[in-house]
Amino acid sequence: MNLILLGPPGAGKGTQAAKIVEKYNIPHISTGDIFRANIKEGTELGKKAQEYMNKGELVPDELVVEIATDRLKKDDCKDGFLLDGFPRTVFQAEKLDEFLTAQGKKVDHVLDIDVDKEELMVRLTGRRVCKTCGASFHVVNIPPKKEGICDACGAELVQRADDNEETAANRIEVYNKETKPLIDYYEKAGNIAHIDGTIGLENVFNKIVEIVGE
Ligand code: AP5
Ligand code: ZN
Fold first, then answer.
1. For this chain's UniProt record, which GO biological process terms are given (predicted)?
2. Which of 18, 22, 56, 155 has its CA 20 to 30 A from that of 30?
3. Which residues line ligand 1 (CB under 6 A)?
């Protein structure tokens, strides 16, 4: 199954991705996670990406397309994958289609999770992520059992550098300008489903399973 998660920052893509990849046993490919790992390791790619991410701007297309398609060439993507945060521009979507077509593949479902701006801001500014395993929590919506500590591995929870008010608000604007047109793009392709992201974590996941199948 070849899946794409679409939706504004804070819609719950990463949260649902963790459940989807477990159920369907496919790799989770998040361009944001790849960049954050590179920033942590201090690579050249990380240095380049950080400039854009800290401002809430998109990393340039050429860089992202190369990273994503390189990842998709790996063996574990042979029977399916879940893309989270890629594509994010029409250019990226076209390049992805070219890449998949050349391999005789296609996108099976685009899952578009929608949440209004006010709720997005609450979610982004309240998010805390595990320093070690990357698990994601929310100070109010999805609190860890022990404040500031990851349920999964016991490490410290921190706030993402781009989750402050100003950067979060800019990310939502950039989404509306650059990424929202993708809804039309996939509407034309006829493989997009829209999911209300405010109906609760489990309900969102149940909708996804309804769309993708058991
Ligand atoms: P990226 O890492 O992709 O971030 P994003 O798209 O901004 O998405 P987020 O991770 O912020 O949100 P999410 O939808 O995954 O929400 P989550 O599940 O955590 O990108 C970061 C940056 O990298 C970009 O700004 C850009 O610079 C660069 N980049 C990455 N890909 C790129 C690309 N293709 N092209 C160019 N640049 C790129 O949930 C959010 C919070 O809400 C959490 O606290 C969670 O616990 C809570 N929550 C989740 N679900 C629910 C629910 N149902 N009810 C209540 N609370 C919930
Ligand atoms: Zn952890």
1. AMP salvage
2. 155
3. 7, 9-15, 30-32, 35, 52-53, 56-59, 64, 85-86, 88, 92, 123, 126-127, 136-138, 141-142, 162, 171, 197, 200-201, 204
